[in-house]
Design goal:
By secondary structure, the protein is α/β, with parallel strands linked by helices. The protein contains 12 helices and 12 strands. It has a 5-stranded parallel β-sheet with strand order 5-2-1-6-7, with helices on both faces. A 4-stranded mixed β-sheet has the order 4-3-10-9, covered by helices on one side. Strands 8-11-12 form a 3-stranded mixed β-sheet, sandwiched between helices. α6 runs antiparallel to α8 (211-228) and α6 runs parallel beside α10 (252-259).
Length: 296
């Protein structure tokens, strides 16, 4: 590998990973729309984290044409269709495309654009937000990224993982794309729905006599859908992760709803419900939350 990586969408997650990779000696290119590209090119990126402050100046382009070994796709789901048009498929002809989006349906979009060069990816144990146009605040320490591919060789996936490990990211390579995606989706879909509808953070939801049963029911339903998709998950394991979250934790979908921005609710909650319909799995709690959120 030639140690070249690109980040499509240098927002909170993408910008943080771009800075970490650049500081690890990887040649990084950020791919962004014109306004964001101009700002990042002018000022660079700054990450404030519990581990300290990191900054980097990286190449920024509006369209990626030169070859890279790793392409991280970190845009939000509503922006994906437009974003992938900014990457020439030839740029990843010998590289690995790793999307870090929530949901499952984005994989079809990326496979159509980049053929078999895609590995399913998810990022967890990580909370970050933009405090300014080029400043990123990480609430948690280094993230955990899990990836797997059914079209790439294990060696190719491991090479991509090694680039991220150089940037002090905990990367785990699994055997199943579906498991990588559903392990997070079975938790984030209920959380996104409940935090968006209630307007409350995780700490309040865990102890609320009305909302905790709704969250629990939604988790049980999401795990049942995952089971129908061939991924066995225990609701108790999802709760173990939720119980470790800081009280003030919310979801990016809930933050977008409050701010009046387009959210990922349909890509997250909607994708679970569409899978449930395919497999005839009843999801009354998730459906009720989807209706309350305006998805149905």
């Amino acid at each position: 590998m030639n140690n070249a990586a690109a980040v499509l969408g240098p927002g909170a997650v993408g910008g943080s990973l771009a800075v970490r990779l650049a500081n690890a000696g990887v040649t990084v290119t950020c791919v962004a729309h014109p306004e964001a590209a101009g700002l990042v090119a002018l000022a660079g990126l700054v990450v404030e984290s519990p581990e300290g402050t990191l900054a980097a100046r990286v190449e920024v382009v509006e369209r990626l044409a030169k070859p890279v070994d790793l392409l991280l796709v970190t845009v939000k789901a509503p922006d994906l269709d437009d974003a992938v048009e900014r990457v020439d498929p030839g740029a990843v002809e010998h590289g690995v495309v790793v999307p870090l989006l929530n949901g499952i349906e984005h994989m079809d979009v990326l496979r159509e654009r980049f053929d078999g060069r895609v590995a399913a990816g998810s990022i967890s144990h990580f909370v970050a937000y933009r405090a300014g146009r080029v400043q990123i605040i990480e609430v948690t320490p280094s993230p955990v990224i899990t990836m797997a591919s059914e079209s790439l060789s294990r060696r190719e996936v491991e090479q991509a993982a090694e680039l991220l490990r150089r940037a002090r990211v905990d990367v785990r390579v699994g055997q199943s794309e579906k498991r990588v995606l559903w392990q997070k989706l079975a938790r984030i879909a209920p959380l996104a729905a409940v935090t968006s509808v209630s307007g409350r953070p995780v700490g309040e939801l865990r102890n609320d006599p009305e909302w905790r049963p709704k969250l629990d029911g939604a988790i049980v339903e999401a795990c049942a859908v995952a089971e129908a998709e061939g991924v066995s998950l225990r609701p108790a394991a999802q709760w173990a992760i939720i119980d470790e979250m800081a009280d003030e934790t919310t979801t990016s979908a809930a933050r977008d709803v409050v701010a009046g921005r387009r959210s990922e609710l349909d890509a997250i909650v909607g994708s679970v419900l569409r899978a449930a319909e395919r497999h005839d799995v009843p999801c009354p709690t998730l459906t009720e939350l989807a209706v309350a959120a305006g998805l149905r």
